[in-house]
Design goal:
Helix content: 25-40%
Oligomer: single chain
Order of helices and strands: HEHEHEHEHHEHEEEEEEEHHHEHHHEE
Strand order of the largest sheet: 3-4-2-13-14-1-15
Number of domains: 3
Radius of gyration: 22 Å
Structural class: alpha/beta
Shape: flat
CATH architecture of the largest domain: 3-Layer(aba) Sandwich
Number of strands: 15
CATH topology of the largest domain: Rossmann fold
Largest sheet: 7 strands, parallel
Length: about 375
């Protein structure tokens, strides 16, 4: 039996606790016991540990996987073209953070990187219902602004396919794409379907469709954002040809290299994942010392990799010390694998017996 009573007592009385002697699977087991009764966010040192934690937690919760917020870039100022799968996963995780209805696992680097402002998704989630009216052409233009790519078949998240009065859309937070059948401008039916067999996978009488890009601006807002970016490029000494190329890519909404670096200029303010946190959410820090070291490493890399044509690191990425102070001051549990029962900060530490140094539950399946 997992020795939880004293730990939960600390949480109830002090809003904070620390545990030692739990390796990653043991910490995932602890998280599985906490998650059903409260909103939970798990922070790990890196993407590998976050993905492993996500798999372990899925097994302990009977296959109900947590959300996962991947970093938008592996290195600061990486300047890569946004990946639709990554953007979709990030949007899904932000939606879960806001609602508090699903546990979310976040690697340290992702916490430092900018995201759209809170409340943005409320304006950009489309809900379709049987019996509603829908203008097909206006609807597909809106989907394109949300990052969807028009394809012959909707086989992957972020795809949409249009054939006459049939619209196939593969949205985040959905196991299957949906097929919307129109009669003139009336929605006659909405059904899930298997993209491989094209067979129906059941009714979806009403279905929210989430964006698959983090650049979510109306036309007027997009033009204002382009003006801010243009002024930045001018002050940074970027020539006319370079400014024109960058702004042209930005106004196309998709395929803009280094979008993450420009999100603060696009929105006129910088926001981070914890700005979306549902009230009362509990934070589980897995290996807090490694998390802090990762924060500092990322910040040092940002300074080293910055060039004058890009926004300043302090505008784009969160300050590592302020972020660590923020997450350790919120209600939560700090967990580390060391069996030494030393306190973490001001938190009394609850040492777990070596029986909770659990084997990797995924190894038994290989």
């Amino acid at each position: 039996m997992l020795p939880l009573p004293s730990l939960l007592e600390d949480l109830d009385s002090n809003q904070a606790a620390a545990v030692s002697g739990l390796n990653a699977p043991g910490a995932a087991l602890l998280a599985s016991r906490l998650a059903p009764s409260r909103s939970l966010v798990i922070i790990t040192p890196d993407t590998e540990s976050a993905q492993s934690f996500t798999r372990d937690l899925s097994l302990f919760t009977g296959g109900t996987g947590p959300g996962y917020l991947p970093p938008s870039e592996s290195l600061p100022f990486e300047q890569l073209t946004p990946d639709v799968d990554t953007a979709a996963a990030r949007i899904s995780a932000l939606a879960s953070l806001t609602s508090g209805e699903k546990t979310v696992v976040i690697p340290a680097d992702a916490l430092l990187q900018p995201v759209p402002p809170p409340g943005t998704l409320d304006r950009w989630v489309l809900t379709v219902r049987e019996g509603d009216s829908l203008d097909r052409d206006q609807f597909t233009v809106r989907l394109a602004a949300m990052g969807y790519r028009r394809k012959p078949v909707a086989a992957q998240v972020g795809d949409m396919a249009v054939r006459g009065g049939i619209l196939d859309i593969f949205s985040p937070l959905s196991q299957y794409p949906v097929r919307i059948e129109l009669w003139d401008e009336d929605i006659q039916s909405i059904r899930y379907f298997d993209p491989e067999t094209q067979r129906s996978a059941g009714p979806a009488h009403d279905r929210p469709l989430f964006p698959v890009t983090e650049l979510l601006l109306e036309t007027g807002e997009l033009e204002e954002a382009a003006d801010r970016i243009g002024r930045h490029l001018t002050s940074a000494g970027v020539g006319a040809a370079g400014r024109e190329r960058t702004l042209s890519q930005f106004l196309e909404r998709t395929g803009f290299p280094g979008l993450s670096s420009y999100l603060p200029l696009a929105y006129g303010q910088t926001f981070y994942p914890l700005d979306h946190l549902h009230e009362g959410t509990l934070i589980l820090l897995f290996e807090p010392r490694e998390i802090k070291a990762r924060f500092n490493r990322f910040a040092a890399l940002a300074l080293d990799r910055h060039n004058p044509s890009l926004p300043e690191p302090g505008l784009v990425y969160q300050d590592p010390d302020k972020l660590y102070d923020e997450i350790t001051s919120r209600p939560g549990i700090a967990s580390r694998g060391s069996t030494s029962p030393m306190p973490i900060g001001s938190r009394a530490c609850h040492p777990f017996p070596t029986a909770f140094q659990l084997p990797d539950p995924t190894a038994s399946r290989s």
